[in-house]
């Protein structure tokens, strides 16, 4: 059995940046709000025993989504089966950036950068090069960041899918297959969140931050998608570029031995089942490879959707093509187009 030990975080005045009055409070509170679980290897039933941070009384920790079993029901199954990824496919994922080509792209990029800055501030993200060579991101810091990131990442697909669904209902026109892919993306992001919540659960402060962020983000995206869905897909494409960077860095740091608690730790059972992780490839590093591949697919899908005519074009990811020998967009990691498919390639 492996566990992440939770040592109290001390934040001293001298350790804080000069401008970080409020930020210091946020950081201190968000650190103390994160609690970790004792973590058993995959396929081992979870028990209620946990190691918790000194700042969160054990009595206040609860299982957010315990597996529900009733007299007649053992489990619930998802209609969306995750495509199977190979290690080689996941290893081939690259950090990339799609150049902005017009004002809509520039606006989307600027908004993505603003959101990234906000997330860095809230989760106290530090890049090694900005910390005088001293390594500062611990497992706990990463989990804080991942939980916040994944809790907002599941919003755009749901907003876009919902609005396209409503438009189809009120205009009595076909959607041409977009809704399914968008809702599947939202589901995938929520599975990321649930997976990481099996490793560490956020405390009250973090949950309040998520609540506030969701309120702002959902409503902002709702109106933005009504005005310019193309810009919103580009914006999500740029955010996913950042997500690929984040997970690439985590993988590199696990492999470099900077995150010792994750070196031998196994992925939670929920992840093993969802990604169908093969035996012998169920470590935290493997888990990060799966999540990064998902983010790379979201990056491609959203950049592709951002290239299309939002009202008329069918969804290339659910389309059946005339020429079956031609390369076409896939749901899996077998064919990744980092900057998305151009319209003339798929429509
Ligand atoms: Fe995600
Ligand atoms: Fe994503």
Briefly summarize what is shown.
The chain has helices at residues 21-33, 87-91, 103-122, 139-153, 155-171, 178-197, 204-227, 229-255, 260-263, 269-275, 284-305, 343-346; strands at residues 2-3, 34-36, 38-39, 200-202. With 347 residues, the protein is an all-alpha fold. The site of one fe (ii) ion has 6 residues, from helix 4 and helix 6.
The largest sheet, given as strand count, sense and whether it forms a barrel, is: 2 strands, antiparallel
Q: What class would the helix/strand composition place it in?
A: mainly alpha
Question: Could you list the spans in which at least 5 consecutive residues all have pLDDT below 50?
Answer: 1-33, 35-61
Query: What distance lies between the first and last C-alpha atoms, to the nearest angstrom?
Result: 51 Å
Helix fraction bin:
40-55%
Bound molecules: fe (ii) ion
Mean pLDDT over the residues: 83
Approximate strand percentage: under 5%
Number of helices: 12
How many strand elements?
4
Order of helices and strands: EHEEHHHHHEHHHHHH
Radius of gyration: 21 Å
Shape: globular
What's the arrangement of strands in the largest beta sheet? 1-3
EC number: 1.-.-.-
Main location: mitochondrion
GO biological process, one term: alternative respiration
Binding site for Fe cation 1: 150, 189, 192, 295
Q: Secondary-structure map with pairings?
A:
Layout: E1 2-3, H1 21-33, E2 34-36, E3 38-39, H2 87-91, H3 103-122, H4 139-153, H5 155-171, H6 178-197, E4 200-202, H7 204-227, H8 229-255, H9 260-263, H10 269-275, H11 284-305, H12 343-346
Antiparallel strand pairs: 1-3, 2-4
Helix pairs in contact: 3-8, 4-6, 4-7, 5-6, 5-7, 7-8, 8-11
Bound molecules: fe (ii) ion (2 copies).
